[in-house]
Amino acid sequence: MPTVAPLDLDGHVVAAAFLGDVPFFATAIGAIHRLDHGHKVTEANDGLLACVYDETSDTLVTGGEDGKVFRVAADGTATLLSEVPRKWISVVAAGPQGAVAFAEGRTTRVRLADGTLKEFPEQRTVEGIAFAPKGLRIAVARYNGVSMHWVATAGQPVDLEWKGAHTAVTFSPDGRFVVTSMQENALHGWKLDSKPGADARHMRMTGYPAKVKSLSWSAKGKWLASSGAPAAIVWPFASKDGPMGKAPLELGTRGDVMVTSVACHPAEDVVAIGYSDGMVLAARFADSREVLLRRPGKGAISSMAWNRNGRQLAFASDAGDCGVVDISA
């Protein structure tokens, strides 16, 4: 039976992550908590809006209401990467070669490892950013689609258009697909064709009763798990056309209790599923088998993350009740 080590914090927790084997919890006020031979705290942003894990450097990247972007290391050290005075940094992304992207308003900025800043203006407000898995390229989610920019070259972006508000964006691990979550309770995807002049093919993934706020790719990139329904909706991406014409898996169905967070296991075809009542389950893709990891708590699960060997899961909620599940116990 999995064991749970609880951690109660004040207020909304934006992100849970592991740096090495140390669990981190980033709160909306800007305090970064870690469980490293005791409970320790780093003060970063004055009002935290976004926090992502940077796999290449094993750090966190944060953005906040103070217009600052920080990199937080495993020992809790916070290094200021950039600052845009009097602006809110509501979107951040971590990329290869030490690159970090962040946005305020209609401007995306990419900071390279040497401190060089590149700016990419948009016609509409930037809602999400993702780095491509290969090459220094970003996808920027905005109203009516996605803009694709090569960071090193100043040129016209490749525009992937689809009417509506696109609120987040992700690349498939093999770089063949770009998927966005939308304001209208749906996902939209494009198959990126490598042939010159070829148009990207569209994929509509609809039927969600709520907005999709959490996405997670499986270890080998064959599945994309999503929140926004009373089950984790898991779309198949193994074939050359992705989920077009295929039904998704529905894992961990719980009546009218909504899934609010998903996190795929780093090695197995298993997904951790967090719910609006604070419960956490793990479900296996092959046979839908479920294991209870955590009983309901005070608030909706806002973030989850596995450690590298997949034996521990950190979870956080919008009410501040967090913890670490040890599934090897």
UniProtKB/TrEMBL annotation:
Domain Anaphase-promoting complex subunit 4-like WD40: 266-327
Pfam families in alphabetical order: ANAPC4_WD40 (PF12894), WD40 (PF00400)
Keywords, sorted A to Z: Cell projection, Cilium, Repeat, WD repeat
Gene3D superfamilies assigned to the protein according to its UniProt record, in alphabetical order: YVTN repeat-like/Quinoprotein amine dehydrogenase
Protein origin, superkingdom: Bacteria
SUPFAM superfamilies found in the cross-reference section: Quinoprotein alcohol dehydrogenase-like (SSF50998)
Transmembrane residue ranges: none
The UniProt record lists the keyword Lyase: no
InterPro entries hit by this protein: Apc4-like_WD40_dom, Quinoprotein_ADH-like_sf, WD40/YVTN_repeat-like_dom_sf, WD40_rpt
Protein name: WD-40 repeat-containing protein
Organism name: Mycoplana dimorpha
